[in-house]
Amino acid sequence: MATVTQDGPFSLFEHYQRCIMLLEGTGMRLRFNQQEWITVNTPLQRQLFSGQWQTDCKLVNGTIRDFNLMVDQRVADFKVDVFTLNNQNLSWPEFFTSEDHLQYIDLAYVISGECELEYKTPTGESKMKKLSAEHTLVNKIFQLKSVQSFDSNTKIFIARILIK
């Protein structure tokens, strides 16, 4: 997570794929390789882009907080999604199947609310982990099974980093 207080260019990261997501604030405008400006002003809106692109940022109206995931494409790919849960259980979606990858790292960031993650470790042991707002779990795990929310507005960002 980053707090951005002023306009400016992003650092270049050759070979990296990036995903940036607005968490708080009125938004930002991004321009890649001197092309058209795009606006990211909806909370939890994801914007994917190459880390080797020249990227300029202008804040829409003051300070923002964002979540920025960067993965080296030479060694991994990633899939991301944001889920909103209302006192419900989310079984692990097909979106995150990893049959072609022997290793992966899961990252879960609770944006708001509280939830419990159920998963299996590489040794097959079942585990439960409670997370509340602004907490992150990064874990090399075998199988994430479900997410259970405990309130009416749990929002969770989940990324699966697939090792090549």
TrEMBL record:
It comes from the Bacteria. InterPro entries: RmlC-like_jellyroll, RmlC_Cupin_sf, Uncharacterised_HutD/Ves. Pfam families: HutD. PANTHER family: PROTEIN VES (PTHR37943:SF1). This is HutD family protein. It comes from Aliikangiella maris. The lineage of its organism: Bacteria, Pseudomonadati, Pseudomonadota, Gammaproteobacteria, Oceanospirillales.
